[in-house]
Amino acid sequence: MTAFADLHHADAPLLLPNAWDHASALALAAQGFPAIGTTSLAVAAAAGLPDGAAATREQTLLLARTLGSAPFLLSVDAEGGFGDDPDEVAELARELYALGAVGINLEDGLGPADRHAAKIAAVRAAAPGLFVNARTDTYWLGDGEGTTSRLDAFLRAGAHGVFVPGLDDPREIAALVRGLDGVPLNVLYSPTGPSVPHLADLGVRRISLGSLLYRRALGAAVEAAVDIRAGRPVAGGRAPSYEEMQMLSRRADGE
Question: Looking at the whole model, is its pTM more than 0.90?
Answer without folding.
Answer: yes
